[in-house]
Amino acid sequence: MALPRSAFDQYMVPNYAPAAFVPVRGAGSRIWDQEGREYIDFAGGIAVNALGHCHPALVSALTEQAKQLWHVSNVYTNEPALALAQKLVDATFADKVFFCNSGAEANEAALKLARRAAIERFGEQKHKVLSTLNSFHGRTFFTVTVGGQPKYSDGFGPKPQGIAYFEYNNLDSLKALIDDDTACVIIEPIQGEGGVLPASREFLQGVRELCDKHNAFLIFDEVQTGMGRSGSLFAYQEYGVTPDILSSAKSLGGGFPIGAMLTTAEIAKHLVAGTHGTTYGGNPLACAVAGKVFDIVSDPAVLAGVKAKHQRYLAGLEVLNAETAVFAEVRGLGLLIGAVLRDEYAGRAKDILNLATEEGLMVLMAGPNVVRFAPSLVIDDTDIDEGLQRLGKALRRFVA
């Protein structure tokens, strides 16, 4: 017997406030709940379901691997992990890959590596981590502190030290902080949770130059922007600015939990055996699925499709906004899109989310003032159009 939504309140720790309905089945960019009601999915599991729900190729990859080998731990390696690592190395700046289970773990590994490498090269004083205000890098105590949003990190006691914050897209703000004691600078090429705010090319180029000047590592957090989300395989390729370390997760597994940290051989050598690890990271099931995701998403036709679908969203949102005048700006890259509310509607993104749900559309927020869309990278154009129609109904009710 299926348990209702009320069972969450009875049995689960209350750190989430899930929607009133319980999804039970998905196919492509559609989801059905316990009552059989259908929803179009513009949320994508928060930029995770890169190929939608139950993509046949992913189901096949998971099923075939499940018949062979589930888990052996990192006392051994395995074929799916080796194959996935080779694909990531061949397609990026990186020489080496570390697999884990989530974006937070990928960023934790990136930050630990950067600090360790900096300290081993230059001494104990070179440990400072610089991050942008209003960023998001995960929920471990280290990454949530690096994130620069006190609402997520306050209340847990003394925080990790040596972390300072600068303003996103403000190079002068970084210049005022960075020095020869800086181990690394960590940046999202597009701030996701912070409002779907893309970096300017000049800003990222300037950050790269400052890192080089001060012998600091540049970390790109591509947990949300990576694996085709921007219209390039990784967003750094869209900008033409290469990091020293990169984190990936979310779309990498297409819904199966996996994270990865990518870096160069010269930097990777500072994580010798025993310095970092994970029990489940790189397990055969996750890597088999992620390998298939990679094969599909890296297809130039799929990446071109992401950019075409971006334009379709923008055109549709422009039509809706001409009628309802809800949004001040629509921004983002590829299929990570943020619609910023006008000042008179500030703080009410959740209201639009709730109304959209009532109209059979799943969307996200990126803070209280931005409605976020992060759908499947291969969402059908008909689903985009119908989803925007449902959003239009929600927006008309919102302004009525």
TrEMBL record:
<dbReference type="GO" id="GO:0045303">
    <property type="term" value="F:diaminobutyrate-2-oxoglutarate transaminase activity"/>
</dbReference>
<comment type="pathway">
    <text>Amine and polyamine biosynthesis; ectoine biosynthesis; L-ectoine from L-aspartate 4-semialdehyde: step 1/3.</text>
</comment>
<keyword id="KW-0032">Aminotransferase</keyword>
<dbReference type="InterPro" id="IPR004636">
    <property type="entry name" value="AcOrn/SuccOrn_fam"/>
</dbReference>
<dbReference type="InterPro" id="IPR049704">
    <property type="entry name" value="Aminotrans_3_PPA_site"/>
</dbReference>
<dbReference type="GO" id="GO:0030170">
    <property type="term" value="F:pyridoxal phosphate binding"/>
</dbReference>
<dbReference type="GO" id="GO:0006526">
    <property type="term" value="P:L-arginine biosynthetic process"/>
</dbReference>
<dbReference type="InterPro" id="IPR015421">
    <property type="entry name" value="PyrdxlP-dep_Trfase_major"/>
</dbReference>
<dbReference type="GO" id="GO:0042802">
    <property type="term" value="F:identical protein binding"/>
</dbReference>
<feature type="modified residue" description="N6-(pyridoxal phosphate)lysine">
    <location>
        <position position="250"/>
    </location>
</feature>
<comment type="subunit">
    <text>Homodimer.</text>
</comment>
<dbReference type="InterPro" id="IPR017652">
    <property type="entry name" value="Ac/SucOrn_transaminase_bac"/>
</dbReference>
<dbReference type="InterPro" id="IPR050103">
    <property type="entry name" value="Class-III_PLP-dep_AT"/>
</dbReference>
<keyword id="KW-0055">Arginine biosynthesis</keyword>
<feature type="binding site">
    <location>
        <begin position="103"/>
        <end position="104"/>
    </location>
    <ligand>
        <name>pyridoxal 5'-phosphate</name>
    </ligand>
</feature>
<keyword id="KW-0663">Pyridoxal phosphate</keyword>
<feature type="binding site">
    <location>
        <begin position="221"/>
        <end position="224"/>
    </location>
    <ligand>
        <name>pyridoxal 5'-phosphate</name>
    </ligand>
</feature>
<dbReference type="GO" id="GO:0005737">
    <property type="term" value="C:cytoplasm"/>
</dbReference>
<dbReference type="GO" id="GO:0003992">
    <property type="term" value="F:N2-acetyl-L-ornithine:2-oxoglutarate 5-aminotransferase activity"/>
</dbReference>
<comment type="pathway">
    <text>Amino-acid biosynthesis; L-arginine biosynthesis; N(2)-acetyl-L-ornithine from L-glutamate: step 4/4.</text>
</comment>
<feature type="binding site">
    <location>
        <position position="136"/>
    </location>
    <ligand>
        <name>pyridoxal 5'-phosphate</name>
    </ligand>
</feature>
<keyword id="KW-0028">Amino-acid biosynthesis</keyword>
<protein>
    <recommendedName>
        <fullName>Acetylornithine aminotransferase</fullName>
        <ecNumber>2.6.1.11</ecNumber>
    </recommendedName>
</protein>
<keyword id="KW-0808">Transferase</keyword>
<dbReference type="Pfam" id="PF00202">
    <property type="entry name" value="Aminotran_3"/>
</dbReference>
<dbReference type="InterPro" id="IPR005814">
    <property type="entry name" value="Aminotrans_3"/>
</dbReference>
<dbReference type="InterPro" id="IPR015422">
    <property type="entry name" value="PyrdxlP-dep_Trfase_small"/>
</dbReference>
<comment type="similarity">
    <text>Belongs to the class-III pyridoxal-phosphate-dependent aminotransferase family. ArgD subfamily.</text>
</comment>
<feature type="binding site">
    <location>
        <position position="278"/>
    </location>
    <ligand>
        <name>N(2)-acetyl-L-ornithine</name>
    </ligand>
</feature>
<keyword id="KW-0963">Cytoplasm</keyword>
<dbReference type="InterPro" id="IPR015424">
    <property type="entry name" value="PyrdxlP-dep_Trfase"/>
</dbReference>
<feature type="binding site">
    <location>
        <position position="139"/>
    </location>
    <ligand>
        <name>N(2)-acetyl-L-ornithine</name>
    </ligand>
</feature>
<feature type="binding site">
    <location>
        <position position="279"/>
    </location>
    <ligand>
        <name>pyridoxal 5'-phosphate</name>
    </ligand>
</feature>
